[in-house]
């Protein structure tokens, strides 16, 4: 992989005890250059059964592991994040950054491949932007176990390069400029132009706002029930409704 001359790219993924505000990480993997760090940690609360069913990390596996805070990996990330040229790359970066910040780390610049992939699909033709869905949709060839932090990091790096290449070719810009653009895209919600679901599938949001405003009012209420997951759609609906 071609390396950036100006930015330190940190490909990162966490596996956690759950997805509630109080949950903590129990596995962390990050890749910087050719170095890959992959470790388990003893969290301060039990791993939920629902989470075990996804990432297969059990209480027995983390029983003898150290806490994340104070570990060598914690100190290395703290140093990396303090550098102006560092960029953390993750799929749904807000979630991973939030997990790290709950542990006391201050994350700087980020690239969210989930949000960049959405941005590059303005007509909403892709059915899902989940990491593994994009992996197989784009034919990304990599030996990696899904829902394992290391496996997800390996897929993440390949996906990042595919998205970066598309931006460079579409905009006819340099790698560094494209990375800066990805940082900017990741810093604010995506504005969707078309629905890819429901009774208005494949219809522009602008047209629905003119002809069926009551539907957007109903949908906005639904999306606001899970604001952390639906930030992009909330932003889109409010934009076209002029709120």
Describe the structure.
By secondary structure, the chain is α/β, with parallel strands linked by helices. Helices cover 45% and strands 13% of the residues. It contains 11 helices and 5 strands; from the N terminus they run βββαααβαβααααααα. The protein has a 5-stranded mixed beta sheet with strand order 3-2-1-4-5, sandwiched between helices. Helix 4 links the parallel strand 4 and strand 5. It is globular, with a radius of gyration of 19 Å. 31% of the residues are buried. The model has no long low-confidence stretch (mean pLDDT 92).
If helices are DSSP runs of H or I spanning 4 or more residues, what is the number of helices? 11
The low-confidence runs, each spanning 5 or more residues with pLDDT under 50, are none
Measured by DSSP, the beta-strand proportion falls in 5-15%
Order of helices and strands: EEEHHHEHEHHHHHHH
Number-wise, the strands total 5
Global structural class: alpha/beta
Radius of gyration: 19 Å
Q: Give the distance, in angstroms, between the N- and C-terminal Cα atoms.
A: 44 Å
- The best one-word shape is globular
Tell me the major beta sheet: 5 strands, mixed
Numbering strands along the chain, what is their spatial order in the largest sheet? Answer: 3-2-1-4-5
Helix content: 40-55%
Mean pLDDT: 92
């Amino acid at each position: 992989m071609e390396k950036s001359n100006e930015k330190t790219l940190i490909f990162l993924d966490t596996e956690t005890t759950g997805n509630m505000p109080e949950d903590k990480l129990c596995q962390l993997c990050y890749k910087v250059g050719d170095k890959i760090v992959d470790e388990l940690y003893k969290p301060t609360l039990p791993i939920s059964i629902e989470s075990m069913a996804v990432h297969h990390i059990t209480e027995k596996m983390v029983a003898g592991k150290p806490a994340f805070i104070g570990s060598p990996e914690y100190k290395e990330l703290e140093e990396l994040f303090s550098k102006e040229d560092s960029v953390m790359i993750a799929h749904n970066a807000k979630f991973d950054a939030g997990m790290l910040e709950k542990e006391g780390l201050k994350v700087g610049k980020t690239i969210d491949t989930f949000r960049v992939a959405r941005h590059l699909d303005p007509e909403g033709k892709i059915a899902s932007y989940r990491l593994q869905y994009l992996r197989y949709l784009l034919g990304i060839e990599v030996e990696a176990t899904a829902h394992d932090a290391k496996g997800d990091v390996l897929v993440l790096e390949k996906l990042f390069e595919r998205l970066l290449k598309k931006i460079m070719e579409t905009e006819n810009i340099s790698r560094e400029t494209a990375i800066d653009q990805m940082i900017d895209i990741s810093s604010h919600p995506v504005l969707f132009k078309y629905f890819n679901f429901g009774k208005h599938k494949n219809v522009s949001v602008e047209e629905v706002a003119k002809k069926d405003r009551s539907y957007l009012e109903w949908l906005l209420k639904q999306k606001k029930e899970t604001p952390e997951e639906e930030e992009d759609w909330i932003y889109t609906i409010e934009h076209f409704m002029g709120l």
